[in-house]
Specification:
homotetramer, 366 residues, Chorismate synthase, AroC fold, 5-stranded antiparallel β-sheet, 18 strands, 26% helix, 23% strand, globular
């Protein structure tokens, strides 16, 4: 299976990079939800390429069309199917790829799994382009979460070796997160941002690419979301984050660095603030025993350098079974990280909405 | 939901730390599987406490009993229910915990989620003890995978700040992994192991605890396991890893460090070895586009320091709504990492077996 | 898969007729539910054999034990595992069945599916005895539904050719249903009941068996439960009813007889009663478009004659691949219908509770 | 949830009667399946209205378009999304229905469930038109099953009170079934067919409608499909059959009439035919203990009279909360039964394919 996810909110993802369209069915939304369509458009625009020299000049306007489940401005309770029709695709660019598998991409594994029947054009169903419908669904989830005062935002923690400070895990507010979502290249420190962009442009000049880490925070979450074990909040969120191509690591709270701490440092002590139970540090990133504790939820996702690069690479021609070389032609991103920000946020929004429905049903949405 | 997992192999986990038993139902195993019961016992023993001064002196013999689905030495095709009866529990030790929530544990979140009706004794259903049935199920999955020549093994990469080398991601073999599974404290370098143990004993002496990172490798996997997006191999494995209490980070291949590399370094170039497609490096940890590529699968799991410590900690009494202090009594692990090794391996074994069944059905098991 | 069911409330069924126990895990119940254990016992007693000459003299006291998820008299929110330990089983009676398959039973299909590895003693996992844990789970569901004023009850519509009147589909009330659940042999007309019992005793005298139809009604349901298409209320209920061994037909409302009506007769016209929308007839059995309409929900389940009979039957010895004859020894039910009543009601209760949770979440239960 | 189904083959159904389109996503088909597109078209044509005076003159050409998962004439292994664009809809006909609920339809229950936000035009998502994508998916399932020699066919057992003979449950062959699928009005006896059509035309003349029973057989099935209890072959098939609007009863084998038989009559005795185990009667309809036994699988589905009739009916205006009358305008079917035949067959084909994949994986399809 590659295309279905969710327990309370069911997603069904379909489409190919160079096929007719890409799309998603969302099942489980209640009737009567007003959808802010311009907001969905803005979220898609955050993911879209071609906005600046940091990304591919390929234009994907990513205009979406709702095919079902929407009537007179609100959801109807029936499954919502949305598609983005493909345009401006240069299929010719990819004809070489039929047999010569691109290193770092899914070309080889797709060919093995689907025994050569996969649509290889532009990666087909395996293309990063399929994250656009995920952002579409995520934009709907974000709108719904916002009704409960839940806000998601991110900054770029590092691009290659250029790094800025972490979020202050105790003092994140929705105002900061909102500001970050309005930035094309969201960072906390302008100076670090300038150096990160230079890093990207330098890689681009060398026909190479760079990766980075996205740090995401969610504020306004109630305590009590998630479960111990199989449906822990970490499991649900990480499941969707690792569904995003290019994500190779996920950590919550202090993450891998927590292993360098003593228990007496890592345990977040409890205190009362206005009779509300809070923790005095937040190394667990707002999740204990798989369940949210009401503190800011914090995670980081590692995004690998874009595999499409102009440099010559060693590879294999699968038809002739011979070693060969490849130079990936076409218009590629020297760095996918800024465009991955709304994708990572969407994964979190969808996982959290599923957990919210488990906890409270759907009636609160209206 | 806290207790069910799986698409092809369904798990149903139940039990409490100080209740009658802990157990698991496995549904989806084919009939006619001979089970190596002593192997299951040995895997449980790897997780069991009380073996040495590095862990809690609490004895949990963890003898298991198969209640159903097993007849004349083989599985019957019906659901396999296995339990471990609880013994040697000192419920008295935990009576204080009813109201005073332990920092770093699930006490507070369990209380919020279950509105005070949770079994609080020893963490109840949220206890790390529930990982024993997971190891039991994992031991069965491992046996099955071994029939296809698939071997899983791990070493401890670091305890606190004491660190040893990574696996050589290209040259891991089943012999090495086998040897590691036979070690009580699995490490590649004996010298590093000695220092790690010292680190643990020092923390113990200070009534404190330490965490660490487990690095796990899987060899012998076929190419083609997993799917793009929602059921990526990374998603499935990470979902189960984050179901393990104390895991706060998961990364595949070079993981977070891949964000420091250029695309030209991070892409694993293809070559032919005896007409088999291989990669010349393995920064993607054996997974591309969510699907295994036949190279060693490699991941790391960050395990936080044991939250149970003898030091005085700040907390809140939930009944009186007052700030207070707690000293966690009882017999605790200064470091859970060595005991977490078979748990982490079980999570991987179960996720991979589910993917194997998706790909090839169940007939190959016999 | 044979053992898991449910979307919001997850069931995991396990055990064998002559193994150690039979049992079930219920996952998805909220914390804090007081369970009426004597009521569960009474429901199990309704299903238990050996009460009168109409059923097998085999005694199954069916005392249940809760292994997990229950603490201080209420559910904890963690999975509830309940078992019934097997006693009074005469395994010797079934030794012949290893190879000689009983007509009308699952012996042959179980052997094919599980390639001879199934536990054949008394039908093993395929035994009707596995409906006891279903009744146990159903008894919990019934208690919960009752909090919303939802009541389920049944009468025996026919035993063989002896038939009584249908429920009046518009005028069923909870008082009548309650009275029916207290009868060992629930019927509307005492006179018909006497003749049905005679029919059973006559079959018994001839070493034969009879079947019958159970008619079940549910009152107090809110309108709006269920969905069009895949999760229609009919689909959910019928799915569980057909999970009950021996059920060969299910119909809702007027059922098969509605095909003899004109649209102008079958359509249930709407009217207002105290400003509540009601229908003036109830041929659709309380369900339209897969969704409850607030009228009494009505269905019938056809239960085939007990396959275990003392008469000589033609069959095949699977080991020698020869045609042979069989006389099923042991203590059998000449008619399973009265004992199937609580099973059928449990199936409905569980399906409806799952739909209630979908609609309203779980908070109303407390 | 209304729109997702399946364990191994996942379906996601979407669309509205008068919206842009109706469609379905199929996830879980292997790559490399050649699809016989004209066959899909012919199956859709069997369901389409407007072919003869027995059905509505409304034309629905139901041309389908594959949006994803199909490349160079075969499936790619990625989700297959197919849509049928809506044309020739007279939305004006339905404007009255916004408030005045049609008896026998889902108008009232849809309004309650979706609190008035449902698309009411022509029944919206609740329309029988949504069965077209189900037939589309079923046509694919049928093609795949045919590769294993599995053939599905049906005849109309009765229209109102006009009835013909049952299938001979032992002697159905694929030739007969094939012939039936080629008939617009499939019957075993031409004479009965003539009288059934007269029954339909008489109802039409009176602005009324009639229902009927469809009897379906499946031959060529292997023994061993299905499971005891929750995923019994009966449960899976009945679940999908009851997802079809208008189906109010489902029975297998001799069905409800088996309750009139003795065990000694109803048990199907075993014999050997060319060393193959067969039964000498087939009252269980090819399923024992939830698992196929290799005999013809036989079921019947009761289809209620079309609720849309020209006669005046009592109803309620939901906006004004007043009792009122309705005459359903528009072009309606006096009898839906012939058009329901491919829908019922599709439900069976999809359920059986899901069970086939469970048993044998997907590799046999290629």
């Amino acid at each position: 299976m590659s295309g279905t996810w969710g327990e309370y909110l069911k997603l069904s993802l379909f489409g190919e990079s160079h096929g007719k369209c890409i799309g998603i069915v969302l099942d489980g939304l209640p009737a009567g939800l007003k959808l802010d369509l311009p907001f969905i458009g803005r979220e898609l625009a955050r993911r879209a390429p071609g906005k600046n020299p940091l990304s591919t000049p390929r234009k994907e306007k990513d205009e979406f069309e709702i095919l079902s489940g929407f009537f007179k401005g609100t959801t109807t309770g029936a499954p919502l199917c949305c598609v983005i029709w493909n345009k401006d695709q240069h299929s010719g660019d990819y004809s070489e790829l039929k047999d010569t598998v691109r290193p770092g991409h899914a070309d080889y594994t797709a060919m093995v799994k689907h025994r050569g029947f996969n649509d290889y054009r532009g990666g087909g169903h395996f293309s990063g382009r399929l994250t656009a419908p995920l952002v579409l669904a995520g934009a709907i989830a974000k709108q719904v979460l916002e009704k409960k005062g839940i806000m998601i935002g991110s900054h770029i923690l590092n691009i290659g070796g250029i790094r800025e400070d972490h979020f202050d895990s105790l003092r994140i507010d929705s105002g900061l997160l909102w500001k970050l979502t309005e930035q094309e290249f969201p960072i906390l420190s302008e100076e670090a941002g300038i150096r990160m962009k230079q890093e990207i442009l330098q890689a681009k000049a060398k026909e190479d690419s760079v990766g980075g880490v996205i740090e995401t925070a969610v504020v306004g979450l109630p305590a009590g979301l998630g479960s111990p074990f199989f449906d822990s909040a970490e499991s649900k969120i990480a499941h969707l984050l690792f569904a995003v191509p290019a994500v190779k690591g996920v950590e919550f709270g202090t993450g891998f660095a927590i292993t360098q701490m003593k228990g007496s440092e890592a345990n977040d002590p409890y205190a009362l603030a206005d009779d509300k139970v809070v923790t005095l540090s937040n190394h667990n990133g707002g999740i204990l025993g798989g369940i949210t504790n009401g503190m800011p939820l914090l995670f980081r996702a590692a995004v690998k350098p874009t595999p499409s690069i102009g440099k010559v690479q060693q590879t294999v021609n699968m038809a002739s079974r011979e070693e060969t070389q490849i130079t990936v032609q076409g218009r590629h991103d020297p760095c996918i990280v800024p465009r991955a920000v709304p994708v990572v946020e969407s994964a979190a929004a969808l996982a959290l909405l599923d957990l919210m429905i488990e906890k409270d049903g759907v009636t609160w949405m209206n």
